[in-house]
Specification:
binds glutathione; Glutathione S-transferase Yfyf (Class Pi), Chain A, domain 2; 214 residues; 2 domains; mainly alpha
Length: 214
Amino acid sequence: MRAKKVEFDVTFINLREKPDWFLKISPHGKVPVLKVSSADGEIVPLFESSAIAEFLDEVVEPRLHPADLVKRAQNRAWTDYTATFSNALGKINYAKSADEVAAGIETAKPCVQRLEDAIARERGNDGPFFNGKEMCLVDAAYAPFLQRFLINDATLQTGLLDGFPLVSAWAKALLSDERVTGAVAPEFSAAYDENMQRRETHVAQLKQARAAAE
Ligand SMILES: N[C@@H](CCC(=O)N[C@@H](CS)C(=O)NCC(=O)O)C(=O)O
């Protein structure tokens, strides 16, 4: 919505204490949910980020999906791949020991390699976004996962992205863009750190040890 300059109201919720109004409108109790007006003026909740993004792309100009049908299908396929990608990065983010982090890095490498290959093969320009100069729906799909990984990587320093210059530059472009950084609650970084502590992750242990040593 920020990329399309749509005016909207956003309510951030605590996922550990989901409000009743939210549970009433979210079919599977997950975020995001977008309330929109249907053709007959009824307010209906849309859910699942991909479905929401596709809907917005159909109703609000400019189109972020490529005009070319094959390219569009390829983009949708890479958006689907976020499930595998986020799963792999989750193994690093939620690792409870240095050994688990190291194993997570090994699991993530082939996933990042696939993205690196896709950009090298399919983009045909210097970016900085997945398709080129303009942000697209694939960018919107990957940004949250890259954002969370990079918050932790500032501490973990896995070097995971170092071997993948295209993905690395892509992540940098996304995380220096206000449409991405402005999409989370102002207290996001602190709340994310607290989540890491609650889950007793290795990254939280490292942060605590460093803070204690300072
Ligand atoms: N495939 C869904 C996943 C939504 C999802 O997993 N949301 C998470 C946060 S990123 C959530 O609401 N979790 C709360 C819960 O499962 O209770 C999408 O992309 O919209």
